[in-house]
Amino acid sequence: MKARTAGKTATTSIYVCFSALLVAGFLYLFLAGQAVSDVARLHQSLHLNVLMPLDLVFTAGHIFVYGALTLLLCRPGRSVQVWMMVAVWLGIVGIAVELAQEIIGSRTFGLGDMLANFAGISLALTYRCMARRSGHR
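^ that's the sequence the OP posted. Answer follows.
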């Protein structure tokens, strides 16, 4: 029985580390990549006070929506493997939605939006794993 518990703890730790790496990668790319694009936009736009806060609101919206979907679909009674399948599925949906917007031409390619989707998924998955590990459901 102890080996099974140790295996579950190790699996949960791996998922938490994976999620933390996704969040760290998102933050790095967001801060490095967005800083360059925001500076370029600031020079091209007359509406300096509107663009950056609006971008941050949209990014926060992506994180919130995909995080909420992950929490909704990853019920506490399900296994961690089911949670990972849901997270991968939501990640694929997030990529497909952003690529569809690019193909339709409604907006420019949103790598930052994709990363925000993954950040929302990984934050929610990390929360679920930590809650399960501590015994809270």
